[in-house]
Amino acid sequence: MAKVLSQEEIDALLSSISGSGESGAGSQIDIKKVALYDFKHPNLISKEQMRLLEIIHEGMVRNLGVYLSAQLRMIVDMNLLAIDQIMYSEFVMSIATPAATYVGVIDDPMSYFVMEISPQLVIFVVERLFGGPGNFIPVGRPISVIERRVMNRVVERIAGEISKNWGNIKKFNCEFRRFESNPEFVQIVPAQEPVVVVSMEIKVRGNKTMLNLCYPYIWISNILSETDVQDKLIFGVKEPSQEEREIGINNLYLTNVSLKAYLGKSRLTLREILNLKVGDIICLDTSINSKIPVFIQNKHVFNSLIGKKKKNYAIKIHNVLKGEIDHDD
User: What angle do CA 162, 168, 172 make, to 5 degrees?
Assistant: First the structure.
């Protein structure tokens, strides 16, 4: 059966024939680049699914960074480093011993997952929560029982952030039920089963450390194959309805915020504070007619005047500031 060649194929044949009679250095043959494919580790997650996983965990990274900054009273910078698909045995072999690995449970669909934290970060967090300076030092011992209990508050918050950020795709509850210092004792799936590892980088005081989440691929596949999730992948997230908007607005109106009026401030020595007695008067740096700053969630929003309403002391809003001013005192 004859085949009709295109002009491009004819030109390629002519160029190869003309180049065969010349020396090897003078011949020019177009060589197409070939992408290597690892058949032992096939890519099971599509680009759309990978992007969805990135969106979920980018929100988680932002929230955890803010939470850790508040708990440790210092700037904590968290970044989503990578999302990789590997074999479970490779993940276990990448963890050094002694380790800080937590085994978590997800209720719908039922599955186990693993969180691996650097032991250096665990010791640092525990020291800061106890009021210490915190140091990044090499840890050559397992995490103690007391340190694990102190760390439970942070671990529970991480579990809550996982459930919260997955909630737009699939609502479920998760919790960490077991701690292991030896990663070889953590067996959530067979060694040759594929898993998805989410790597997060944590920067504190110029030190970099890692936090890794390991999900079984079969669990992620079950969630991403659901019909409503597929609709979100294809059509994107739907706009909220009018009823949903009203619910959100009503929830905002019912949200409690702190409002503080600062009458003034004064500086005392430690000896003066220790010698204070009942009836002593402390002079402030403001007068009775001064404008008193009013702060909402530590933001300077209003200026006010001191007064009385019936038998209670009160403040009267004098003016609204155009720009918010942070208050660090």
Answer: 50
Structural domain boundaries, residue 217: 47-248
Q: Which CATH number does the domain housing residue 140 bear?
A: 3.40.1550.10
Q: Which residues contact 172 (CB under 8 A, 6 or more apart)?
A: 106, 107, 108, 109, 163, 166
Closest CA to 194 of 214, 180, 179: 214
CA distance 115 to 130: 24
Beta strands of the chain (E only): which ranges? 76-87, 100-107, 110-117, 174-180, 194-204, 207-216, 259-261, 292-296, 299-309, 312-326
Nearest to 76 by CA among 209, 213, 214, 212: 209
Residue 40 lies in a domain: no
- Do 288 and 222 lie in a common domain? no
Instruction: Single out the residue in 202, 218, 248 at which a domain terminates.
Output: 248
* Residue 212 · residue 199 · CB < 8 Å: yes
- The total number of structural domains in the chain stands at 2
Residue where one domain finishes, among candidates 226, 248, 270:
248
Q: Bridge partners of 114?
A: 103, 214
**Model pLDDT for residues 76-120, shown as the tens digit of each residue:** 889 999 888 888 988 999 888 888 899 999 888 888 999 999 888
Q: With CA atoms as reference, report the closest residue to 159 among 92, 67, 73, 45.
A: 67
User: What's the pTM?
Assistant: 0.59
Taking only the tens place, the pLDDT of each residue in 132-189 is: 877 777 777 888 898 889 898 899 999 999 888 888 788 888 899 899 988 888 888 8
138, 225: one domain: yes
Instruction: Give residue 326's identity as a one-letter amino acid code.
Output: D
